[in-house]
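Protein modeling request. Please complete all fields; requests missing the sequence field cannot be processed.
Requester role: graduate student
Desired output: 3D structure, token encoding
Chains: 1
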Amino acid sequence: MSARAPESEYNRQSALDERCLSNSFVSQRSPERIMSYTPKQTGDMLKIPASTLRRYANQFAEHLSESARRERGREYTEQDIALLARARELLRSNSPDDTNKLLAVMEDQPLEPDDTLALIPSISEALTTLTDAARSLRVEVDTLSERQTNSEAQITEARDRQSKTESELAEALARLEALEREQALPWYRKIIRRSD
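Delivered output (196 residues):
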């Protein structure tokens, strides 16, 4: 009996391995079935953790295929993955309530008129935010432009002062050289020069 237990355990494990392989990968190999991916593969493709993928699958279940809505053994089709990728991008840029409505538009499913009207406040708010951001950027650009103009005026003023100082220095050096030459003359020439 003990000799058969490991053998039956081995048989059970191999049957389980075959079942796992057939559930995960046969759908990718057989041309008659739609290509599907495990949650791990899908998470890797979308670069999101498994918990986020489950949350997205629950949040957007109405837009996903039947195999992606299962509680156990979920498989995601390429269409599901594309939809989840769009949902991820929309969630990064919009509120979750608007995301379902935007997903419906992206899937070419008609929205109810009330749903379309419900998007107007969020779009209006986004436009207001962008307009305010543009105004603040304009004010900042004007401020920087004014600072640049002031800086250029200060630089011009500093260059004028430098030029004036250089000319005064040149005059002082000329006077100093004249005094040094006069100082280098013998004493009797200094007297003669003064009398002239």
